[in-house]
Amino acid sequence: NANNKKLSTYNDFLQELAKEKKCLLADLNGDMQSIIEASSDKKNGKLLTSDGVHMNPDGNKMMATGVLEALGLTAEQIKAAQAAW
After folding, report:
1. What is the pLDDT of residues 49-66, one digit of tens each?
2. Domains of the chain: which residue ranges?
């Protein structure tokens, strides 16, 4: 939607700032958009959110996975964490 397009400039800024400051950045918006685009079932915009804003359980798992990836955990470590969810 139009609001998500506005995020592009903001996210570009955050990525550049993180690079400049040598900080880790979990691109959760990128992850979210990729999942939504790949899904054949859009669920009226509620694939990852309960109301279009707040994450549902699938959205929470997506965010947690993105943070763990940004922190450098291996696929095996992430899979072990996901088993506990």
Report:
1. 999 889 999 999 999 999
2. 26-83
61: its two tokens: 């798992």
Classify each residue of 2-12 as buried b or exposed e, where b means 16 or more C-beta atoms within 10 Å of its C-beta. eeeeeeeeebe
Q: Which residues pair with 55 in a beta bridge?
A: 49
Tokens of 64: 């947690």
* Both structure tokens of 73: 């955990």
Q: Hey, is 2 helix, strand or coil? A: helix
How would you classify residue 44: left for phi > 0, otherwise alpha for psi between -120 and 50, otherwise beta?
Answer: left
pTM of the model: 0.82
